[in-house]
Amino acid sequence: MSKILVIDDEEWLREMIRLALEQQNHDVYEAASGSEGASTARELLPDLIICDVNIERSGDGYTTLSKLREDADTAAIPFILMTGLADNAGMRHGMELGADDYLPKPFKVDELYATVNARLRKARTVRDEAEKKLTLLRSQISLMLPHEMRTPLNGIISNAELLADSAEALDPQTIAEMSREICQSGQRLERLIENFLIYAQLEIVGSDANGVAALRSARADKAAELIRSAAATAADKAERGQNLILEVSSLTLPMADDYLKKIVTELVENAFKFSEPGTPVMVTLKVANGEISLSVRDAGRGFSTEQIKRIGAYVQFERKMQDDQGFGLGLAISKKLVELHGGTLAVESGNAGGSTVTCKLPAA
Question: Does residue 247 sit in the same domain as residue 288?
């Protein structure tokens, strides 16, 4: 049983729709104006809204739709516009404002049922998919979190205990080595927590239309400079500065500086981690086919087709063989960030080894 709100200034039509939908066991609520409908929608949070375009002959349906799409609580509610003037311009305007479907007047009851049921099915599918992802995320976290956090903690605690109990018996070189191990373990733990929090935040933002819009409004005006700096830092960390090749054009990217830096850092660090010293890692930024293309190519062991399909949060490949550190979140975070900004991330791997990760974004 679903809650459906019908907004129309014609009482007889609201009554007809209500009676028809109640036959399908829906709870139907009515509003006679756009302002009343918006208020009721915020209070009721229905599963579906059916709204006339020309409420009181003023086109108030578009205004109602626009207001509800700007409100985080109602932005995701499926919205069907009814109109007796279903011209292309009007339909396009409604879709641009966020309408999910159109129901041309006059319509038969079977057409009403088909349109309503299609929207409700799609909404349920989206919710089920989100719940499935959340369940998988919880499962992966519960499996990976204890091990991944325990490993650096063991290094910190064991070295700290030795220093506390036996500092007087240790020579300065040993103390310095143990201190470095504590520092490295602490940095690893900090990175794990940071990536975990970032991914969780992106999952929340991805379900909020206003949050996604805010992300896409940011601009990285000095993208080339930022990419060069982040890539060079990653290369120095891997002690492979001489292997880094940069072909970076001066462009503006539709993304905040911090998020762009995060993507470049994760992709370049992975490229160095999974390739041998002395082999090149190339970072390219250019415009291709009307899109901005950021790619990182290495000559490492590459990915299998099955591994590429499985890219996601908390997934690591060949863990027992390679003993890779971390949640495996770096690539998943990059993919999530690119997709939230309206782009795509693809991984290509050749038969002879090596892989290329390409992020494509709409031009700023």
Answer: yes
pLDDT digit string, tens, across residues 219-250: 999 999 999 999 999 999 999 999 999 999 99
Alpha-carbon gap, residue 143 to 146, rounded angstroms: 7
CB-CB contact of 64 with 37 (8 Å): yes
| Gap between the Cα atoms of 80 and 134, Å rounded | 28
The whole-angstrom separation of Cα 117 and Cα 109 is 12
**Which residues does residue 101 pair with via DSSP β-bridges, in sequence order?**
80
Q: Strand, helix or coil at 46?
A: coil
User: What CA–CA distance (Å, rounded) separates 31 from 11?
Assistant: 9
Tell the residue number behind the tokens 């992802």, with chain if given. 133
Residue with tokens 């879709």: 95
Task: Quote the radius of gyration of the chain (alpha carbons, Å).
Answer: 27
**Predicted confidence (pLDDT) at residue 90 exceeds the cutoff of 70:** no
Confidence of residue 314 (pLDDT cuts 50, 70, 90): very low
Question: Tens of pLDDT along 5-58?
Answer: 999 999 999 999 999 999 999 999 999 998 899 999 999 999 999 999 888 766
Which structure tokens are listed for 109?
A: 């009851």
The first and second tokens of residue 293, run together, are: 């293309």
Residue 307 clears pLDDT 80, i.e. is over it: no
Report the DSSP beta bridge partners of residue 79.
Answer: 49
What is the predicted pLDDT for the residue at 325?
A: 45
Q: Give yes or no: residues 292 and 364 share one domain.
A: yes
Considering only CA atoms, which of 288, 272, 287 is closest in space to residue 224? Answer: 287
CATH assignment at residue 61: 3.40.50.2300
Domain boundary, last residue among 107, 142, 167: 107
- β-sheet bridge partners, residue 16: none
pTM: 0.56
Cβ atoms of 276 and 242 within 8 Å: the answer is: no
Residue 198 contacts residue 262 (beta carbons within 8 Å): yes
